[in-house]
Amino acid sequence: SLLFPQAAKPTDNGLEMLPPIHWWVASPLPAPMEALAFTLLTEGEAKLGKVKLTVERVEVEEPPKIEGRCLFQTLSPIVASTGVRKGSKMEHRFLSPDEEDFWRVLESNLRRKAMVLDIAPSHEPLSFELVGRWRSKLFEVHGTMVRGFEMRFWAGGNAELLRIGYEAGFGERNTQGFGMVKLSRQT
Questions:
Q1: Can you tell me the distance from the alpha carbon of 26 to that of 28, in angstroms, rounded to the nearest whole number?
Q2: Which residues contact 187 (CB under 8 A, 6 or more apart)?
Q3: Which CATH number is 70-186 given?
Q4: DSSP one-letter code for 85
Q5: Burial letters for 110-146: b for 16+ Cβ neighbours within 10 Å, e otherwise?
Q6: Which distant-in-sequence residues (6+ apart) come within 8 Å of 1 by Cβ?
Q7: How many CB atoms lie within 10 A of CB 75?
Q8: pLDDT of the chain along its 187 residues, tens only?
Q9: What sections of the chain are H helices per DSSP?
Q10: Rounded CA separation 34/139 (Å)
Q11: Among residues 74, 72, 90, 71, which one has the least CA distance to residue 82?
């Protein structure tokens, strides 16, 4: 997820965050989570760029039972993109939640993640409904500009795919911290 400090203020060199700073991580695979927790607890610190952060504690949250219609809120922006042919070249185009393709790409991406995890979800489609306004964020990741979107949205349909979205992230670039959500409500 993004970092969630108690408070933050801009400085000439960036952003000063006041502790405590909360950071969430998730994975559908237990081994990487166990290794990360062990390392953080053993070393007692984490490096963020050139800044060392003291690790006060590591907590494991019980994953919610994903069923029915779920209201998700992003903890880090969701990235969805497609290729667009410009002459003889393919260019990357980031999609916004206002575009139908954004939601199609999210579902397609979840189905690919299910295959990699050796999960065979039913063909039941997902339904998405944006709640309120979204917020666009532009990040530089290893020299590449990446556009993601913070939002709240309802999702329903295939519970296995929604669980994968909750645990692995929705959209692209999840290993770079994008696409993490929290479950706000279920109906």
A1: 7
A2: 68, 69
A3: 3.30.70.1900
A4: E
A5: bbebbeeeeeebeeeebebeeeeebeebebeeeeeeb
A6: 23, 24, 25, 75, 76, 177, 180
A7: 19
A8: 677 778 888 888 777 887 788 888 888 888 888 888 898 888 888 887 787 888 888 888 888 899 889 999 999 999 999 988 888 888 889 999 999 999 999 999 999 999 999 998 889 999 999 999 999 999 999 899 999 999 999 999 999 999 999 999 999 999 898 999 999 987 8
A9: 30-43, 100-116, 159-168
A10: 29
A11: 90
89-94/14-22 β-pairing: unpaired
Would you give the distance in Å from CA 80 to the centre of its chain?
Answer: 11
Report pTM.
0.85
Q: Which tokens in the block code for residue 105?
A: 């790409």
One-letter amino acid at 157 equals: G
Q: Where are the domains of the chain?
A: 4-54, 70-186
Amino acid in position 90: M
In the chain, the amino acid numbered 184 is S
